[in-house]
Amino acid sequence: MTRYLGKQLVNIVVTLLAVAFLVFALNELTPGDVARKLLGPYATQDQVDRLYREMGLDRGLLVRFGEYLWNVVRGDLGQSVVFRQPVASLLWDRLGNTLLLAGVCFAVIVPFSVFFGVLAGMRERSAIDRAVSVFSSLCASIPEFAMGVFLLAIFVVWLGILPGTSPLSTGGDWPIWMQFVLPVMVVTLYDAGYLISMIRASMVEVMRQPYIRTAILKGMGFRHVVTRHALRNALITPFTVILLQINYLVSGLVVVEMLFAYPGFGRMMLEAALAKDIAVVEAGTLVAVSVTMLTQLFGDVGYMKLDPRIRV
Amino acid sequence: MSVEGQGLIAASPAPGSAMMRRLRAAAELLGRSPTGMFGGAIVLFWSVLALLAPWLAPYPPNKIDPALLADPYPSTAHWLGVDHLGRDILSRLIWGARTVLTVAPAAVIGAAAFGTILGLFAGYKGGLADRVIMRVGDTLLAFPKIILYLIIIARFGASAFNIIAVIAVTQAPIIARIVRAVTLDVKNRDYVAAARMRGESTWFILTTEILPNARGPLIVDFFLRLGYTVIAIGVLGFLGVGLPPPDPDWGSMIKETYGMIFIWPHMTLIPALAVSSLVVGFNFLATGLREAAEDG
Fold first, then answer.
1. Which of A265, B60, B114, B290 lies 20 to 30 Å from A40, alpha-carbon distance?
2. Domain membership flag for residue B52
3. CA B138 to CA A246: how far, in whole Å?
């Protein structure tokens, strides 16, 4: 186990280095962009060149990449050109907001999906199963931006009972918790659609097992069979998938953040990428990739703990 | 069965008549699943509109007429109304179908071709080549998709070609994994050994002996991936890094009119319905094919 963990951690570090270098190199293909951007379109080429040298951009790629890594290790992520503040403070601020939204979504999505997935999977091809399956694949097929538009039209434009933006400011007419309702609803419907079908498939598989039939034939109540015998085994396979939703929730919220003007991580990445704010893009990518790889590792370890048959 | 599906089904060296037989068999399989039929009908509907766009669209899609904003709602002259610049929404929808049904299949076919070659090669050769290919693929997969798209497209600019390229490259590793697994499974079977003994080339063994085994999972994956790609293209359009204006793109249509949803909701709702229906079509089609395959 220790060996496995060590190997995986080395793997994560190597991938992060590769990712950092890729993003760094990608942004270097036409240097000078940043200097030009900072000085505006009317600066002379001479001024651009001078700033370019002052920023140290005339040295070799590897030298600067090494320097960047050294700074990152010391906790200095650089300065954001667009947001005009240190990347670290901006990043933690936005990441905090996104984690809050992601946390609320996760807390809603998981019980919601488990409930409907189990409900559908416990009696394969029943009316409930059909209804839940159609509903979930329909939800998973409606892109978030379209789902957002539909919900906004219903709850904001037509009924007028929810706010249409979620800037997290307390000054408006709507309390903070109400600003969360629509974003969470959009994410839940889209993501749960996928999760429900995974859990349903796993539940169907388990319900076909002989030990379940034995339990039913023994005269045990159906509810008892489902909750005591089937549920635990049915959740082993979807466990990793459930954890993988954390990735999606951290970096995939950009659409919802744009829909509802939520000051989150994804929106920061979009704005930074469009403005070629390299320091922000680089740091944000590293954070996002770390989250992905750590949840994957966590998922694998948890999977082994849940299913004693699996050993490394 | 949509036009796009034929490419993969026909990926075997079978001549015309065999290909027709396969197509008919696929259609019959699909006929047993109402879900699949429903999905196929939606996809067919949009494909026909896309194909016949120049003849079906009642107005030029980029014709601006601000005078129409006095009454932009659906009418007999403009069945689905006009958008915030007075452009006919129906015409833009039809031309937009053409865009998305060109870009999405091109991207997915690119990903399938690229991923299949890498997967076959990695699985069959093994060793260092396998490790390097899978390692690079894993690194690409570690990137959150949307962020990767944003970085690359913000860097190289938004054009149909760049969008196709970025989607093809980022999705290829997943397809490579599917194909590699199948390759590893069958490469030591007797008929592969027999082909090697006969002195067949590696290329022949890979494409004729091994690849057909991956056809089933690849076809289902193909349609699921098309649905997913339609979403991805829509997301890029919605985020403002999609296909450049003024040419109609469903995601951009939503982005442009989103701020006006309080005054003119139809301008945003109609393209949102269109893109959702197309994704529903592809996903249901994939479900239908999988169900049919499972039931034998």
1. A265
2. yes
3. 18
